[in-house]
Fold each of these.
Amino acid sequence: MKRRLSLIGISWIWICSLFAQINTERVMSVGKNALFFEDYVLSMQYFNQVINAKPYLAEAYFYRGLAKLNLEDYIGAEADCDEAIGRNPFVVNAYQVRGIARIRQNKYKEAIGDYKKALKMDPVNTTFRHNLALCHIHLEEYADARAQLDTLTSIHPRYIEGYMMKTEISLRQKDTVQAMSDADKAIEVDRFSAEPWIARGLIYLQRAKYADADADLTEAIRFSMKNDGVYINRALARYHLRNLRGAMADYDAALEINKSNFIGHYNRGLLRAQVGEDNAAIEDFNYVLSIEPDNWIAVFNRALLRDRTGDYKGAIQDYSSVLKAYPNFMEGYAQRAQLRRRIGDIKGAQADELLLLNAQISISQGKRPVIGKNSPTRKKSDKNIQDYRSLVVADAEDNTPAYKTLYRGKVQNKEVAIRPQGMFVLSYYEKPDDVKRQVNHAKTVAQINAQRLLPKRLLLTNAEAPLTDIQIKEHTQSIDLQTRRIANRESNKYIYFARAMDYYLMQDFDNATADLNAIIEIDSIFYLAYFMRATIAYKMIEVEKDGKTDMTKELGTLGTEFQKGEYAPIIADLETVLKLEPEFAFACYNRANIAVLLKDYQVALKYYDKALKIDPYFSDAYYNRGLVHIYLEDGEQGIKDLSKAGELGIYSAYSLIKQFTKKVE
């Protein structure tokens, strides 16, 4: 029985000193509003501002950790709570959030330490003791867990979850008598809650007291009509009571709630077959096989039904598939032999009958064991073909607790491909983003914009926006204007740079490169010209290779088609940039990306490290470095980097953290 961690009790009231600056207070307030309305990524941007302004305040770290917890970035949440507790060890909710983050990383002993500290400050807190008991259950420390629950129910005698957890402990210890007593107490405390009725009903099922199970599960349905699992379990009780129509009605109800319930379709198919609804039964088994095409027990049941409904070709096909998977399944040969003889395939029937005769002789001589036992029910994971008439029951449930969160809107559930962030370029246009990530700053770019040396504000971006019709017209006119100025000898490097930008945006790479070359002749230390020339050379390779070098390819498939020599001019220009301006982080980043393309992963790490040393807030560098670490099987460091990237605004990092965490588990 799955239990849930509770976040109930995390207070939004934080006792802290008054902020000296009203702006910081307001940003913090707006961040908490965003957090309350479940916009976790945006809220982190506000908390980042507070942390940057006043890094000594614990509050912003706590709330940022809470946002990360809701994004399932458990490593990041734990780290932020560490920071909050380091600054103020008396903030009880920081221990609660860190405890949950640690539980989600299977750090149960560390979580126990957090909840014990929290309980010293708030000994009657239901949530803290609830989660502490869950940690002990995970570690199979059942005596400690029960002791905590005894204390909990003595302090809060109406807390039904405490009695339900005691029931779970008793079941884990295979003490059904005590489990029944615990469930009885839970019903006594709250007979209008479905969960204790479900628990006791399942205990009755285990003890083969099917009438009692039916009664309890019926009570549960009164209070939880939208729980398909309750209907599935009551159907099983009714089946054992030979109430086939009642069982079928329950399967119908379960499938109305959850159309994809595997057990509902499978068992309803069996019961439909028993009462002669053959075509409807075939539909159920077709659904089962659409999910599990190699479920040979379902295939055999469909074969029997096809046989009965006159679909002889389909039936023989199904029988043959089953016998290929289970060559010793005698019932299959017998059914196929009968069908083959019925449709006039005498030769095929005789072959099956001869095989059956030889098998019977072998069995009589003790040479071949009989397969299976044909039980009334079987677990879903059991694959004994002889049990083809048996109803399916669920396997033992995974008892891993999952905390109940009060928040929704989880961006980490979006599908995100495992791809590096792209190259940085100079542009006038950038795709709008729902969440402002980082201001990409470079001293020379800022000076150019401040002095208005170019027609438009220059940006550093790796999210270029395509030109609109109006912008295309504007840049065509700008090219004409800059060309006239150059012809009139008004030219300087910025006029050439303006025209190079126009050409670049218009996808005229050759002319753009020519203008950049002219700039370098005029001023050989103007590093932005080398940077743009490298960008254009990279894009020209993309075009030449039909996009096969694009950084949007999956990590690990990059660089397989090309030689390093093709990238030598790009690498040379980027190295020149770094000689002229060693603090230009974007050149380091692009150099690292080129190394990733060439599968020079150690070189890539070297340059990502340099970029992050220059700019510790460079989110794209954290993201890409994280992917490289993970590809090199350093998952812990990789997830840390992705966590930092998410903290700084690349929200897709949280989806990748979730994917990689599942792979590790």
Amino acid sequence: MNFRASLMACAVGSALIALPLSTMACSTVIVGKDVSKTGEILIGHNEDNGGRIFNPQYWVPPAKHKAGEMITYEPTAAKIPQVRETLGFYWSQTLDPDGSSFSDGFVNEAGVVIVSNACSNIFDKDQKLKDGGIGYGIRRLMAERAHSAREAVDIAIDLLGKYGYFSEGRTYTIADKNEAWQLAIHKGNTWVARRVKDNEVIYIPNNFMMDKVDATDTENVIVSPGLIERSIKNGRYKPATPGVYNDFNFRKAVQPAEQRAAGYNFGRNQVAWKYITGKKITDPEQFPYSFTPDKKFGVEDVKNILRLHEEQIGDDKDGWYHHLGFGPCRVTTHESVVFELNDIPAFITSYRALARPCETPYIPFYPLAKPSEDMHFMDAATATKEHFQARDYRFDYHPEWASATFINNANTLEFQRDDRDDNFDIIEDLEEKWADEQTGIRAQAKAAMKVSEAHAMAILHRYNVAKLAEARGAIQNHLDEIAPHKIVVMADSIDPKSAADVKIALLSDEKLDATKIDQKKTYAGVGRSSLTTSGVMSDLTQPKAFEKVDVDGDGKADMVMTFAQKDLARFMMAGAVFDTWLYTREGGDRIAAFDTVKVAGATNKKFSSKERGHDR
């Protein structure tokens, strides 16, 4: 199935509700190796967060630590003793102004992959914690210490027993070359770990999906002490055979049905499971935890699932394309990844989209060969230190940062929907070409491995850098064609607390008479990817005055628009340089353009809760 067809073939309708985008989070797909076209476990994940979110990528080298060293992550969480030696790992960071406990992804040098999904809104929220409990430490310490997926589960279970989990709930997906596990954690020290069967395909949104798990299968299922007994006592579980716990329904025992029925979970569950099973499921209680298909799934299938939308996508003809996007691909999807596991960790292949995957190519790269230098704007040690206390300027617009191109593309196509088809063609051509390259690049690296691992990793690193540059160039070239028009913010800075005026000029050029734009359909503010609301054009601000002036002296009248500074800066972060977007129309054409401006002031935010950051 080609790229464009995959976006449309499985679209189905669903009843949706308007919710803040910050509540709509991630999707994960797991394909067992027996039903994988490659014979390897496949893991796919969409990371969703609202607001000014960046996703730098790092290589964190292995390290030795001093005896007695303690780890501090969230300021209010427990301090954890460090081990003497830690593994090196690839780290996809969620850089959030408030710090992010629950979004980062990892691949460590032992070949262990870690992603997660928030599963909040639980029954029993009053659970005991020790010293503030643990949050971010679960994922980070699994990445630093685990030599296998099962060892990672054991590490997490040990930490939960010592400290307790301070978030309401989450399902971690942990995989290595041999097996994938899911660890579903309820607040406190309550959890179920289950090994994914080799013949299963799993999809999970933001509710617990484990239904009937066989607690008597102690090799493949681990249940936290006392959970089943409590569930029986509180009436949330009744075994078919008393004393035999082979039908324990975890999701019903810990989470109310409305979480599974919520539109932001139901919509993506429906489209994903229709792709996987071929059936449209209308009862949220009938969504399976896993499915055994009669065909094999490949990397393209996982990409297709992560790119799915519902049928009503784009039905707001005057506004945003994703305004009702509650499928796996939605406006808050700011990165997407597919991992193809391998017996040799160095050859784990990743395909990563650096913005919404329906608008962005999945760029192939090898995580353990280190990302390109332009995938981050500070080093890994500084990023770790600032993860929960990043300075305001870290959220400046970075034109040199590779992800900026793909975010600009997403911000443009979200409005200029008529240009999406050509964008699809570019993506499809790139991905087909890259798929054909994989056999050759792996063969080259395997041959180099006979010389040295360093030689092989150098080859793969060059490939990482080259493919990112190729993708960035192709997308930027298309952007130059579809978004050639320019704006100028007529100020060095804007004050988010001021009602004073600020002007933006849309410049006329050979193809645009800026004075003829539709004044009633003109909006400005943050780019679509930085919005945190349910997503209508009125979230941005409209000009309060228009003036025709030749601003740049080229003999053509430009359109100068006046805004209130505080309205333009709505959703912007004080202290940062923001890409400031104008969305308007001229005739039948949609126009998206941006300039940058400093937002005055400083946030000086302090942590007031253990649950700061996006609960993904």
Amino acid sequence: MMWYVVTMAVLAVVTVFCLIRSIRSKREIAPYVTNLLIWLFIPIISNTILAVSTGADVLRFCYTVYFISTTVLLYYFAQFSLEYCNFRIRHPAIGYFMTSIMGLDVVSVALNYLWGHVFTLEYVTTAEESGYVFQSLWYHKIHLLISAALWMIAVVAFSLKTIKTSKLYRDRYITILSVFLLTSLWQVFHIVSNEKIDQSIIGMCVMGVFIYIYAIEYQPQALMEEMKKTVLATISDGILFFDEERNCIYTNAAAQFQLGLGTNETSAGFEKLLALTGEDREDSANYQSKILNCTKVEDGEEYIYDIEFHKLHDLQGKLIGSFAKITDNTERTKRENLNRFLATHDKLTGIYNTDRLYDSIRETLQANPDKEFLVLASDIKEFKLVNDRYGKEFADKLLIRIADLLKEKAVSATTRYGRLGSDKFGVLIEKDNYDEETFIAAMRDVPNVGRNLVIPIIMHVGAYEIEDKSMPVSAMFDRAFIAIAGVKHDAELKVAHYEENSRDALLWDQKITEQLDNAILTGQIVPYLQAQVSRDGKVVGAEVLVRWIHPDEGFMPPGKFLGILEKNGMIGKIDQYIWECACRILRRWSFEGRNDLYLSVNISPKDFYMMDVPEVIIGLADKYELDRKRLRLEITESIMMDDIDEKLKTIDRLRDAGFIVEMDDFGSGYSSLNMLKDMPVDVLKLDMIFLKDTAKNERTKKIMSLIIDLAKSLDVPVIAEGVETIDQVDFLVKMGCDYFQGYYFARPVSLDEYEKKNLSVS
């Protein structure tokens, strides 16, 4: 049996080597391999001792250790098989069951010393030799069944994985499975022949070595080659391989496209590469590595490439070949150029952005110290409303149109222009080249963007003549915009020139804007009431007007601040505050039994863009539990200048909710009768402009009479506002006017004064 002992010794050394390498491995499968090799080492030792021993006690101990170790070995082999073949035991109970069966078998075999139920040793003497012979008992059969079950788990796992996996991976599984099956047959032969020692342990050792190799050390060459081929074929960089004579032996698809190579033209790869780079064939052999940048133009398209050459040498330093990598930088270069462009240019219009315009103006002023310049700034009136009404696409076309006009008109070498943000543009122009009429004519052409407009696009332009060229460019444009602020409400295009008092006006605007919130909070904004009376002189209600009692400026009429708030969009804040003041007044009057009086409040045209007007007013009326007919709502014709359908829906919502809607300033617009036709209102308020000189102007009298008759035929009451003289009153009474408002009857007064005069009279 010496050959067996030597073989087992060699296998033990190999197993120890594999075990040490497995312990040091960082692979996830390594612990499973380690456990398997540890328990493989034990039957190697026990079988070696069995081969050289003759004593009954030693043999009994070795057989016991052998049976225990083979059970544990098969258990760990089953665990390894499931992990290696990616079959996870999802239910932990199955794992616990396997461990329990393995543990019971180990304990049962160990108890053979007490119960003698697994095996026994019988001393036999024959003509050739004498010694102890292994005799199987009843539990040995159960032990073999448990071992067979663990064996079956491993066989099934490897068999299924071999069938399912790609042929590139199949050798990893089929080799281990084959060795395991052969070893199993060898094990069966041992059991049937009842040999003293189990020679199939040699097969187990070989299987352990294969498991270590495939699980820890194995690198699938076929897979790697396939992956290399696939990666090289699909990467965007062109790859070419050359032998030592620079004959092209491989090109991937990217290189074929970049060099214009056909599928079977690989051999021409080097010549095509030289043609692209412009390199000389002889010179190209003198360098070890090189990076070239080149450009190719094909079918009008420009391609930008980086090309790397590298020579390859073996361990002795001898040339074995070379390769080239072609990187297409066309898109990256385009992106970089675009990013550089966008860093200095406006994305929408393509002209200078603010920072670049400022830098360019500074450079131009420094380069031309003897020339006189102006900066011009433009602003589109109510651009937000244009955006809302016609949509972003139209608004963008409008901005592009302005930029195109600036490009077209900027013929001087010193002219600079750019977009300052939103709808604002800036220009630097020499004073000698500036023709205001030509500039205005160009700006009037701005709305020509291929669409008929309901309202005209109005541009305002501010001009500032540069006196101090060391002033920051931003401050120059600030002055141009200050000039614009002075004409912001004008309804026609004009160029406003900066003057020092323009700055004072801007500072006043800023002061009003900044102090509004605090003024509302501290009660500086107060409601004033102007009485409205009937034909018989009875006070029936009042219009609620806004006044600002400023701590520094004193009593401020609305003309000093309402226009500013209209312009900057903050009018909604003050309107909502006055609406709520009116609701509180009406609520208190109700408690005092004065439900016979109403209040009228004004709704600014901009309120319809800043809020849901019906929702706000209905909410206030409900909050103060008002009879909604006592809160009258005054709207002007100007709200119907755009979004007519939406505005009509809004007015209908207010009337359906129970409010009385009055048309204020009737007759001040150019389409009053058309508005009267379309707009569902409950009361007409005649504008005071109609009452001027009515006693002397027969034509005006006839128009007034017709308007009042028309209103009466529509069952619409008429309030004449701005009544100042007894002659006007007599005329309006004869015409059939229903109600009056004006200085003749009462000026706007504070709430206390109004109540003292009117509520004290029963």
Amino acid sequence: MEAHDITFHEITMEDKRWMDEKFAEEGKNACEYTFANNFIWRKRYGVAVAEICGCLIVRSLGDDSFVYSYPVGEGDKKEAIVRLLALCQKAGQSLFLFPVLEAERRQLAEWFPGRFLIAECRDNFDYIYSREKLETLAGKKLHGKRNHIARFKDEGDWRYEPLTAENAEDCRQMTYTWIRMRSEKWNEEMNEEIEVLHEAFDHREELGLVGGVLYRGEEIVAFTMGEPLTEDTFVVHFEKAYPMLQGAYPMINQQFVQHACGAFDYVNREDDTGDEGLRKAKLSYYPEILLKKYSAAESTVVFADRGADADAVKKLWTACFDDTEADVAYYMEQRMTNENMLVIHAEGKIVSMASFLPVQYRIDGAYTDAYYVYAVGTLPEYRGRGYATQILEFAKAWYRAPLLLAPADEGLTDYYAQRGFKTAFLGEWHRQERVQEGASLRALELQPQEALTEEPVSPEEYVRIRDERLEKEGYVRWDAEAVRYAMGLNKRGGGETVAVVSGAPDGKERDVVMYYPQGECLCILETTLLPDKLERFLPVLFAKTGTKTAETAALPGMCWLPGHMKDCGSSMGYLGLTLA
């Protein structure tokens, strides 16, 4: 089958039989894998289908081009993707696949290395619950749900019925009242959902949809509708209840599961579409599975896979930097994810890379998401081809957030300046000599209420103290995970990270210092101690480490800002702790 032989047609009810067979061949528990779900959304997304190499492919309209499902069924999936690539190439488009599940993500990385940018789509993760949990609501965590149901039942005069041809029209009419109750929050997406819901009512019996209806007196106050998804999972497509009626939502949820889902172990309640209120509500039921979904877009810049690409990344890293293989392995174990290292493949291997680690950047008095650019490197024999620049430019468009970095040497400052980075963190070195040999440390001791002592410090406390002491315009906030890694890396090099306690017993202050000895020099990687306190504490560290001089540094750094933020920021910010 060539690209020109592939023909998609608009999905119709006549496709139900063969599509059901393809879905059943795999038994995937994602909500997209039912005929009904694709059929009722057909008008909104222009859903079309085709069989390619024995696999079902569902095509829908995306923002700029078509979106294709990952091949479904027991056919030749790899060849089906090859045919889709050819089809898109002929049309002058890039292939975009969604949804891609975890096993499929690994398949793509293996079959087409360096071909697809695979990214998590958190807004589309499915919430899958144990049927027993939703039925019984047992346990302390779900105590609140039981209370809401109890309040609903307090009024009495309620009943539950299955959704039937007789009450379906009344449920349809109830949606219009529901719309009026939510008029202040109404938007286009909600309007589209109602249109799709009415498609489900129109074709309910043909689609095999099952539902339940909750009454207060003779008035419908909630209803739900779904269908079997796999042999052990039921999927709920719709659930509507009057928002101001306490307990209506948990009540219809529980009643429907009790009456209609007894043959299933799990209930898939679909995604949250990125709505924070809906996300909070679905998380409050504590799902057994938060089913990850990915998109896969054809691209020359892709994310490295920390499993399949591990050896290639290590070889590239050690070829570009002085880090030991053990330190590289430690970084990959602790900090690398499947979505924070961008790479380029050439001639069948990874030849260029850069990591982008999430931080918070204080700009115009508020924090914004930003990314610290780390370990930018290209194999020596592939340098001069613009690969690193290509990765940086891709990152600007992908993240659409400030990019921060600390040039490894002065010569790189011009390189980054030519690519739009500006000075944002001024560097400043301080050097201090040890007290003369034989001088008494007592001369530097403070009064008892001002004594300085050291104690262990956790990454979480380090973050808290660092934020309290160092926050200012242009400050970069690292989270506890980043600090934990930095502390571990420093310890591997013979260093320590401690809290420094000072002040009277009833008013103690805590600071932090991260340091390591290098020969006779004590390198202070970061500290929140003011200069006078650091001077008083150094003799303790000199004696402890056997060093004679100390160096502290505020690392110089640069920042690129997206267009809407180009006039923001300060050149006097504080970067401080990095992974260097």
